[in-house]
Design brief:
Blueprint: H1 15-24, H2 41-50, E1 55-58, H3 67-71, H4 78-91, E2 95-99, H5 102-107, H6 109-126, E3 129-136, H7 169-173, H8 178-192, E4 201-205, H9 217-230, E5 236-237, H10 245-254, E6 258-261, H11 266-280, E7 285-290, H12 299-308, E8 312-316, H13 356-369, E9 385-393, E10 396-403, E11 412-418, E12 425-432, E13 444-451, E14 454-461, E15 487-493, E16 501-502, E17 522-526, E18 529-534, E19 541-545, E20 552-553, E21 562-563, E22 571-578, E23 581-588, E24 597-603, E25 610-617, E26 624-634, E27 641-649, E28 659-665
Parallel strand pairs: 1-2, 1-8, 2-3, 3-4, 4-5, 6-7, 7-8
Antiparallel strand pairs: 9-10, 10-11, 11-12, 13-14, 14-15, 15-16, 17-18, 18-19, 19-20, 19-21, 22-23, 23-24, 24-25, 26-27, 27-28
Helix pairs in contact: 4-6, 8-9, 11-12, 12-13
């Protein structure tokens, strides 16, 4: 973050400083022969391929006037940070960059380590990775040497007037102080060298800025050497921020991943990206600072450039606050009232968006990157599972399947989560029959929803039959039968992975209407009301849920259910809206046979009428048969759809040999769902 002077724009050093740097540095090579070497291009590429497209912000809480205030004992605010990072979760952003303040560490190393740990836990809670910065030369006001304790309040109209560098210009210049900084760098990296919440170490932000010139170079060189001695599992870097060739050579030759700053309009941003990618020589590239609306560096014009080039990007600021970075660089109180464009940040201090269209663009770009850089492989995870329900919570995808086994062994439900759809974490037994007193087995087809901070899991249990065991309509059993009493239940938890508990102590639906077995529920929202499709044995019903999910409520005409049975319906309902049309998908055939498949119909409302359209997923030899009982997910902010389903691999190892897979679901020009191509 700086006041730029050149075409990108950035700030040039004086000729004297350039000469001094050249004299001080004989070669731009790694600085410690005994330390770990710089990552090879191959290792750096592997890191890039294993990670998503990075898109995030340079973060400082709105209630902090500088990074000293962010970390200090008098200013650290976990509740504020949690609330603000939640905004990133809603946007789908996946990373934050921030300066750590050395003076806070010097004052109390253990406090600082505990505070950094807390901050990283808040990042992890929000689903974002961290890029810590050790040193920063930037200064915008009178403070060039930070002091711990309560920080000054803002001066209205003065951009970042109390910004505090780290460790401060005096310590940067005085090499007698550098042993203290060495201890700091090595201590912090050693504590977190294998921490997966940190994706990259940024060693030094804009070395030589604020008129320090060549005097920053000794500390810059040493910091690279200290980091190499610790040898973290994460890459290290320091970003190119101006056009000084000598300084940039140092940065390029010592960074594992190439980082840079670019506050420029679309034309110059595109040019700079090409230049840096070429300089990187195959290494991953991340733009660690961008977005200045006053010079044309905007979401509308530039975000797509970064994504198209697979160059990560972190804009400056999230929530506007005490730093007053809505003002133009260098703005002073004597120039009030400020009439220029809003410079940085996505949200105002009251958490309202500065520009809602920008946020929609970000959601679309980042959400689309969730599947990058390559398509997931099938099956998604090990084990025999069926009836998968896929949901997206924040930056994570969740799949809730049925355990594919004999009915009497289906006494539990597992879940799986992933941030990239390639690496999955198994969450075992999120709900079991021990928590549902009326359930004995056949726990099927979980359907999960997050509402008001709670997670609701709808499920069916016991393979219910009507009174007397006959497949005909009947009243709910007045007393539970010995074997086949059951139906559709609902459980609740505070987290998507549970543990879940029975929400109402009995089935939500335990009766037979329209000869529809109470199984295979699918819950959806329409115009502020919640509805549930369900049914087996070739019949499908629609019911309306109470707002607390504890009971059913009648429709406007007093009816408790509506017949929704479409052509060739068997089970496994799915309902979703796209471009004003409602799609009713379902499974046909027999789940035990090869002919199991997915058909669909289309209507103008979720209540119908629906026009039958045909089959979209079925037998595809020699890969698999029995493909069905699916769910769908749309990447938020895009028209990119995926179908998650189970199928029977060829050769089959038995009636319960089903595995969970995912593939693209595409639409034709008339809105028709194109036949899904199963992949390995």
């Amino acid at each position: 973050m700086r006041v730029p002077k050149d075409k990108y724009p950035s700030r040039n050093l004086t000729a004297h400083a350039v000469a001094a740097i050249g004299a001080a540095i004989m070669v731009a090579a790694p600085f410690c022969a005994e330390a770990a070497p710089r990552w090879s291009v191959e290792k750096a590429k592997a890191w890039g391929e294993a990670n998503p497209w990075w898109c995030g912000v340079n973060y400082i809480p709105a209630n902090a006037i500088n990074y000293t205030a962010m970390w200090d004992k008098t200013g650290f605010s976990p509740d504020v940070i949690r609330r603000e990072l939640r905004l990133m979760t809603e946007l789908g952003m996946n990373c934050v960059r921030f300066v750590m303040q050395y003076k806070v560490y010097e004052d109390d190393p253990e406090y600082f380590a505990a505070t950094l740990e807390k901050f990283l836990s808040l990042c992890d809670e929000a689903g974002v990775k961290a890029m810590p910065i050790f040193f920063d030369d930037c200064a915008f006001g009178v403070n060039t040497d930070p002091v711990v304790g309560r920080q000054p309040e803002p001066l209205e109209g003065w951009y970042a007037w109390a910004w505090s560098p780290s460790p401060g210009h005096t310590m940067v210049i005085d090499e007698r102080e550098h042993p203290k900084l060495e201890k700091y760098v090595k201590d912090v990296i050693s504590r977190f060298k294998d921490d997966k919440r940190i994706f990259l170490w940024d060693l030094y932000n804009e070395p030589s800025n604020s008129k320090l010139g060549f005097r920053s170079c000794p500390l810059l060189k040493k910091t690279f050497a200290w980091a190499r001695e610790v040898n973290p599992s994460q890459p290290i870097s320091s970003g190119i921020w101006n056009n000084n060739k000598t300084l940039n050579a140092i940065l390029l030759e010592n960074s594992d991943v190439v980082t840079f700053h670019c506050y420029a309009n679309r034309e110059n941003t595109a040019k700079r990206i090409k230049e840096i990618v070429k300089m990187a020589g195959g290494r991953p590239v991340v733009c660690t600072e961008w977005m200045n609306r006053t010079v044309g560096s905007t979401v509308k014009d530039c975000l797509g450039l970064f994504k198209e080039a697979n160059v990560g990007c972190l804009a400056w600021g999230l929530v506007n606050g005490k730093t007053q970075t809505h003002l133009r660089w260098g703005h002073r109180p004597e120039n009030l009232p400020y009439k220029g464009p809003w410079q940085h940040d996505f949200y105002r201090g009251d958490f309202t968006p500065y520009d809602a269209e920008e946020l929609a663009t970000i959601r679309a770009a980042v959400a689309g990157a969730a599947f990058a850089p390559s398509r997931p492989s099938n099956p998604l995870f090990e084990g025999w599972y069926a009836d998968p329900q896929i949901r997206k919570y924040g930056n994570e995808y969740w799949v809730f399947p049925t355990a594919s086994d004999r009915f009497r062994n289906q006494t539990f439900l597992d879940a799986f989560s992933s941030r990239d759809l390639k690496t999955w974490v198994k969450h075992e037994r999120i709900l079991t029959t021990n928590e549902v007193r009326w359930a004995r087995g056949a726990m099927w087809a979980p359907d999960a929803h997050e509402v008001g901070g709670k997670y609701y899991l709808f499920f069916s249990a016991n393979d219910a039959y009507p009174v007397g065991g006959k497949r005909k309509d009947g009243e709910p059993q007045k007393e539970p039968g010995l074997e086949k009493y059951g139906g559709i239940g609902v459980a609740v938890a505070d987290r998507p992975e549970g543990p879940y508990r029975d929400f109402i102590g009995k089935p939500l639906v335990d009766r037979f209407w329209n000869r529809a077995q109470p199984i295979d529920q699918y819950v959806f929202e329409y115009k502020g009301e919640w509805y549930m499709l369900y049914g087996g044995w070739g019949r499908c019903n629609l019911v309306k849920l109470a707002k607390d999910f504890k009971s059913l409520v009648p429709f406007e005409d007093g009816a408790m259910w509506r017949d929704m049975t479409p052509k060739n319906y068997v089970e496994g309902s799915v309902m979703f809206e796209r471009k004003g049309k409602w799609y009713f998908m379902y499974s046909s055939g027999s789940w035990t046979r090869d002919d199991y498949c997915v058909n669909y119909s289309v209507g103008d409302t979720p209540f119908g009428p629906f026009e039958f359209k045909g089959r979209v997923l079925g037998i595809q030899r020699p890969l698999a048969t029995g493909a069905g009982h699916h769910s769908v997910v749309c990447v938020p902010g895009t028209d990119e759809w995926y179908i998650c389903y189970h199928r029977r691999p060829i050769p089959s190892k038995g009636p319960h040999h089903r595995v969970v897979c995912i593939d693209r679901m595409e639409f034709g020009p008339g809105g028709e769902i194109l036949p899904v191509v199963m992949t390995e």
